[in-house]
């Protein structure tokens, strides 16, 4: 995410990077595929609103893969997110082949997370809440047409289920989370323009 943060910063945005719980230097036991992590995003927003220089700032979020799941779930729980880039976003985070290869693993993960966190990770389904963002969170879906983890059909389903304002971009030849690597200049221009449209309005 450093490259993405850099171009947004260079474009004039204040950028907050943080580790989800159980990632990087943050404490935690395990991933919940975006469900509990959505609360981390809300905590980050609270931090920004408590900081004098950004207390009145409009909030834009860029989430990638599981981060996209967490971002959509967070936006469904908060009116603070004005604009959201959801890149390689799964329809159902518990059905991503690279993370949850089969139903046996899915059931085991669900039981383990429920024992530790008391939540049901099968609720980590952006498709179920994406319509809650209608009219209050602008959406920009980005997906490669060669993505076998979060296939293009999933982005199409999310786009169709979402209300307005919304837009999408299919990156030719890109696999999972490869859109920036394959089309850096175009990616920067499109994301900058998207945030400019909704964060400066």
From TrEMBL:
Top-rank lineage group of the source organism? Bacteria
A Pfam family name for this chain? Answer: Peptidase_S15
Query: Which residue intervals define the domain Xaa-Pro dipeptidyl-peptidase-like in the entry?
Result: 9-95
Gene3D superfamilies documented for this protein: alpha/beta hydrolase
- List, alphabetically, the InterPro entries matched: AB_hydrolase_fold, DNA-binding_regulatory, Pept_S33_TAP-like_C, Xaa-Pro-like_dom
Q: Which residues are in the Peptidase S33 tripeptidyl aminopeptidase-like C-terminal domain?
A: 119-196
Single annotated GO MF: hydrolase activity
Its name, as the record gives it, is: Uncharacterized protein
Organism of origin: Dictyobacter vulcani
